[in-house]
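Page 37, top half.
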Amino acid sequence: MNYLLLNFIIALWIESISSLFFGIFLLIKGTEKSHRIFGLHSLSVSWWSFCQIWEISCDKYSTSLFWGRIETIGVTFIATFFLHFVISFLQIKNKKWLIRLAYLISSIFGGLSLTKYMIATTAPKFYLKHYHVPGIIFHFMTVYFCICVSYAIWKVIGAYKNSLGEKKNKLKYLWLGELLGFASGSANFLLVYNINVPFLPFLTYLGSIWPAFVTYAILRHHLLDINIVIKRTAVYSILVTLITMLYFSLVYMMEFIFRGFVGYKSVPWTLSVIALFILIFQPLKNLSQSFVDKYFFKTSQATLVEELQKAQEELKRAERLKAVGTLAAGMAHEIKNPLTGIKTFTEYLSAKHSEPGFVDKFQKIVSTEVDRINSIVQQLLDFSKPKPLELKEINIHQIIDQTLSLLSNSSIKYKISIIKNYDVSLPSVYVDPNQIQQVFCNLFLNAIEAMKKGGKLIITTGQDKNIIKITISDTGEGIAKKDIEHIFDPFYTSKQGGTGLGMSITYGIIKEHKGAIKVESEKNKGASVTVTLPIKSAQ
């Protein structure tokens, strides 16, 4: 196998796999019609690359002809999907007729791809074993492909010129990425028309990075308005992986050429020469990675990881402060009661200070109420500052009741009835009271927020061998089936303005206590969360 053919196949494999994963990513993560269309566009690129690999590498004429004809179906739909995406993404009006016409033409070309009118035959061409010889219809398909792609890119460039700010950035990456992909891919048409392109395999390498280019725009600039939390770290990995693949391909190609000149065949010689080329080209690889760091991210990979960790910690603090705010509102009510007692005694102090026993009673009550206020404030401080587990033997009902008391304002506001089905014979457990209170606070708040039109919050406790079970049920709007499997995923949320960390933190606390948590729900039929904790110490 000559080195040009070898590199052509490697480049096509990279393009096929990267386009496949990019297309699947968009179909899964995309929320708009335009996202799915772009995903199909990427999958059609993968189809074309994959089929072309088999066409140019197989030995049999009949097999090559089969793959060449199948490949052409992907080619015609690459252009149509891209045209449809651009019209949808840019919200160009009154173009439904154009989209329908494009799909009709592609369907006709797709059907004819399996006949001699599209691909007449395949034959050796230059450094390729087989490549397709066009039929009469192929010429019309080529014209259609060029018109479709040129019109779409022209529309994107026009929108780019008339845009400002972030939208301009998005469109810049879109048209540059597609221009890169189409420029390298379209060069394959030259081979069809017997125009030798010796650098085509290396041009295909450039085209194979277009998914990474557009992925970078999605992750870095929210292209297509897809917002992923793990941004620069993920795309950094993609780009560096592609650079590494290109680097090793270059090393292998150089070794292949060197072997042809020198004529050695032994494995030790091959490995020695590869090692030599790795050392020679290592500065090039380092330079490429530095380029990615400097011009794409303005920083290093280590810094990216550090920034991500900081961002996660910030969100965790924000989630905790949100809960603290809710607790503070409840505590304000709790603090009013002892303050009222202190104020009452203070008002009578001047008139009754000479009465027997009044000062002693005043001192005792004021001291008790101040301690009560101090305890409440300390709870808030402990709650807001996460600490290592401090396990204490405690009755779980006490923590539940304290948390419900602090959230009483919210339950009254939304007309929620609290039903307690406690097992009074429940033994004590070893837990960190503050952290377990945060668990119940998160779970109760979720239930209350799901019942803003009123409902019932039911807390049931029980024992099963060496564990206690706390089941928190509500009659709220429930959780969609697709959300339940992600409910404990960090940053996953279906709430407007939510951080997606409440349930993740809850899960982490329960796991630290060697417990378990399970959520069951149906949309519009309420939700039920069961927490299990070991009776023995978690230590």
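Page 37, bottom half:
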Amino acid sequence: MYKVVIVDDEPAVLKYLRYVINEFKLPLYICAEGKNGEEAIDLAHRYKPDFLIIDVGMPVKDGLAAAEQIKKDYPHMKIYLLTAHEQFDYARKGIRIGVEDYLLKPISPEQLSAVLQKGLGAVLEAEIEKKKAVQVDEQMEELKPALREQVVYDLVFNRDSQMLDSAAQVLSLDNLDFSEVVIGLLWNKKFKESIAEELAQELDREIGFGLYTVLPDYKFVILCNKANIKKMDKLVIKWELEREILVSGGVATTSHYDNATHAFIEANKISNAARFWLQKGFVSSRDMGEKGYSFPKLLLLQKEILNFMLGREVNEAFQVLKKTLVGMENLYCPPEQVVNFAADLVTLLLGEVSHDLINDEQSETFRKKITRSIEGVEAIDQLEEGLKQFLTELNDKIVGSGESPTKQSIKYAVEYINQNCHSELNLEKVAGKLYLSPSYFSRAFKKHTGRGFASYLVEVRMEKAYKLLLSGKFNVAQVAEKVGYHDSNYFSSVFKKQYNIPPSQVYGGDRQKS
């Protein structure tokens, strides 16, 4: 890494410079920051950076004066002037004192990155010539890791780098020809993140592919040829036996390094899928191409699972779900789609039981809790555990623990009728809500309530109608509609049969009293 000092009296500009250097992963280390020319001079003497980016217009001492003094003391330092004013005198003086470039604000991230990469290339070439001249092999070795990382980043992120030819020379690569982009990630309970770099180095020592790096998320990226993959597989098996380290990897083919970005994206997708399905070793895009995938129908799965839970058979419900997940694994379904499928299933199951079996507030709170837990999973075993816990808790909520399944179902049927008596209800509809056959539901309802379904429904409707009529707020026709009768004459007939008086008398009597 090369050291850089950034100096500007505007905090926003300093933040912007930090962003560009970090976002474009330039091999630059910001060793210090300042806000005026005097601080720039002090920081230059203290840190002796390779690069200095300094604003022209600053208090105490302006950037031009500071740059002129620093350049005298450190003629090889790369200095870049920043200014918001396009003035020829500034540019002319900058050229005279030997600054590297004169940058007019605002400068785009891409422009600034290109300018700094050009400077890095120049520094690299100068270092190469210097090291060749004095044959300082040890110092060259120290440069290689950062350079190798920079080259890999440039290739896989499709950046226009001016350092590739020089880098190939420094890294003792005859060319930058490779056919495979490999991404590997390690997983086990004892895994220490720092070991990723060590393992990537071991792969390089054993196989000698030359170009590799470790990403911030501790995945390692390797650019190699097809013949290297089998060797890597053998080494991974050795790690598994000796170190208890498991590796999942994705391999994608590229015809030329100009296409490395596409291969990198594909390999990363495959490695994530391999990790999710707990698959060890390296999986190639060619292997993936042989497998298509499709998802089962959510409604059928939901119905089968809920039917088991209403019978208190939560383990059987989970086995149905697990069988579905195994089918997805066999088809190598993408992890994000599997997780989305699971979240949709949770929502669908809760949507079916809300209103009827658990209230809306309980349902939404429960849904958010479960969705958060399954969206953060990294592997199928975590997803299975979360779904099993969900089914267990949901089963407890809709079945309860102190009553038989049939009695609990009838209890919910009664609650459903009481809350929805204004709707068009019938035996088949309510039985369907509980996934019971109409004939079985009819017998069970009469056994547990002592009344037939139809007579109970009429009783609930008439009780509600009587209260509405007594309130005096609604006439007979309106009350009929509110308790599920579209024909007010038929409603009157049923009401009179129930109470031995016509509904108009209840409504009229109440009005007379008031």
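Margin note: DSSP finds 23 helices and ten strands in the chain.
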